[in-house]
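Changelog-adjacent note: as of this version, every example in the card shows the full chain rather than a window. The one below runs 100 residues end to end.
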Amino acid sequence: MLVHRPDADGDNWTATTDCDDTDAAIHPGQIEFLGNGVDDCDSGSPDAPPGGLTGELFGWGNHTHGQIGKGKIGTNYTTPTKSVLPANVVQIENGIGTFG
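Full-length structure tokens:
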């Protein structure tokens, strides 16, 4: 007979397999996104590299609206170009849409 402890956080993962049964966002089926602070219960896929997230931001493509973060608007960058964003940026989002 196999006994499973109850699912305290209601994420459909019982405490037997869930590494944190107090938080529904943390469970073995969670997709691991580097640096998001949500654990997938797999020590083989760390949530962040040793020392934390570090580095510089690069972007490329059409700089129509300043989305690359550097240079003259309207320039098309065909290779990765270093952004001028400060080193303490912890999250960025980018996108394009239609208005009207």
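Structural remarks: The chain has no helices and two strands.
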